[in-house]
């Protein structure tokens, strides 16, 4: 049987070995510690190209596809490895993965109850649970799942626009005074990308200065807003960040919300990374205090929490705001939102009309099933163990002052930004040349991580706004859980790779 | 063991029964013919809510999760059923599903080679293959995967904006003359939604009239463009549709492209539904002639072709256009796009910067693996069999003139828009009241489909622009393949349900 003739009914049998090999967690036990088995891009490209050439015209038999899948699995980065601490996402919790498989298999769109009854209801339910957490018991309001944090932020800015200038839905921006977004210099670049896509323009994004820790300065925000007003432009929204990408800083939400209230500006909180701290009664008081004052919130459950990519929530305390922003009325798509439907109340079908996309993956179900299985307690345990691991890591590098130099006096939640000092640079004067060498050592460390068996992937970055050269950036998604042994291994690998750099 | 304690390593064992139940194609053989087992929204909501309540605080054991998954599977709509002909997507090909599972398991972002080496390369490769097809051998150009057709269309309008007014990236639309999008009255509502999000406004969307078949009239387009120019507004882009949502109409691309050339306007083709005809040498000549003249194209491989949702390609013949539109420069995210990286050439990491989202699902891999396994021949077979099924269906209703009334003289590719006439209305004068009754019969048919064992889901819609009342809309995604038996079953069910309506 060729792969062309395989029907849906015999798929489970025919593809059994293929599905097995995907489900096996360690397909190559002899090499299971690798985070990446590096192949240079041109070489990997050539190998993949030759496989496509085999099947390009006439297809290829299941055995060849199986062998190709095994090749692919071997050369994917293992983001589920505890030493993948390279990005703000990582392993996927088995419950989330099972939910993903279910969503993939059912292959439907979260636009109407008719097409996706369970998924549409589960999405509404889990958005309600999230609102109760972020907005302190408030059940009403609005929300939707977006295909990533960039779009979740954009939903927030669109909501701000709709409240300030509802006529822009009809007229566009032509003839309006320039509208301005405020965000910190450390915030995510999706704020600027949104300004480009929304027709605001980069000139109308004001980057507010931060303090040493990378937190937006409320005094500077207030001045910036007043300057914009004085110039005849109109403040549209403030984007505060709860967990910045590099330093893991949390903008002070209470003073920022006061500035927003005083100045009459929408407050959106980009909590894509740090929003998961909501599950820890202890840590949410430290990091997320005041978030309930936000007009809208973006939170990526696929980052720290270990939900499968994508799982991005947009939340607002304003009821029915999304329909106002995005709906063209059900009559704009009468083939989908039939208003004379007699099987059930048509109001249950409104989801597609209030989204930008109409058709969407049923991402909400993944968080719903994780919630059923893990509960608030399970989420809390995951999040707090990530915080514990970063505290442990920080305490270890703080002890070894000769070898390590953290930028801040403590971890910024689950981010640690630090330099490694190789033996040849210890004890020297920390002048410009010394810093230049440290910056190169950081790049060299990355190279060794990749080339020496790929046993660790940990990112590095400069911090241009602070004038800081390349430093290592440890980030700890909560899944898979990180132990003190993992932290010790990271330190050992860095010092081994760096000894002669 | 509670679900909280399950680690990634023992997931395969613990969740084995759960994964099994998801992979089984017919979990309930006694009832395997159901497309939907309908439960009214409030009742289903209550059942799902009670399950969430069980685990809400402390989580729930694997057995309860398994039982919940089985409940969910039972109440999902089976979009893989051949009698799910309700939307422009349907079943997912087993190869695509296997690729989805792999992508879900590897849980990474298609933003850099470092994070997703295989996926980033496979995406580029499959976009190149698609460009060669749509642009008749042209390999260069640009492309990206978008989270759905709405965003793929928006990429096209952003590209048009960038070419016409590159300064808008910095200044926004303030101070510019109004920019106008042209699209047919039958086109997808994502064009209007894009105008809202992009700051153009609904007033700046011109709906061009169509002919009886639902195809945009090139003469009307030319007049509309000239009127806009005369009014001092600036034509930005024409959106032509290859496969409209209701009638399945293909706008005539050659005359439209000539108008666009003459008037200096960007031509974007929304081929979300009809783009898959590119795989049939016979049908692409009929339906997609001239598509190579498009400046940009959106195509959803998850619609007719049976790739898993989402699998939306944006293609352009303009090289490097996406970086121009969307990039803020690699220095905007130096933690991700390190320019001094020494492991490999940094150019391989540019994907995130040229996308709007930065982080994205690796949707491209799904199409890549399907291509390896099925090849061009396999895709062709799938697409042509869908066309054959609609031809067969049309011929059957055309024969039975008493019972059925098709709107057009033949199927519009894989869409058939038609009315069923119950016995009581046969032979009567077709006056206003008669049409009003037919419209209600159509709604009644839908209700019976849902309530009578849910053995068929087929949509209905009015066509307001043509002043047409509710009609049945048959749409045939190519996977799972549709046989003449399926078509006969659809006709039999309609006549059975409708006999006494």
TrEMBL record, chains A, B:
One Gene Ontology biological process: carboxylic acid metabolic process
Coiled coil: none
GO cellular component: cytoplasm
PROSITE patterns: DDC_GAD_HDC_YDC (PS00392)
Family matches, as InterPro entries: PyrdxlP-dep_de-COase, PyrdxlP-dep_Trfase, PyrdxlP-dep_Trfase_major, Pyridoxal-P_BS
Keywords: Decarboxylase, Lyase, Pyridoxal phosphate
N6-(pyridoxal phosphate)lysine PTM sites in chain numbering: 303
Gene3D superfamilies assigned to the protein according to its UniProt record, in alphabetical order: 3.90.1150.170, Type I PLP-dependent aspartate aminotransferase-like (Major domain)
GO molecular function terms attached to this record: carboxy-lyase activity; pyridoxal phosphate binding
Name used for this protein in its record: Cysteine sulfinic acid decarboxylase
Keyword Lyase attributed: yes
Protein family membership: Belongs to the group II decarboxylase family.
Keyword Lyase among UniProt keywords: yes
Necessary cofactors: pyridoxal 5'-phosphate
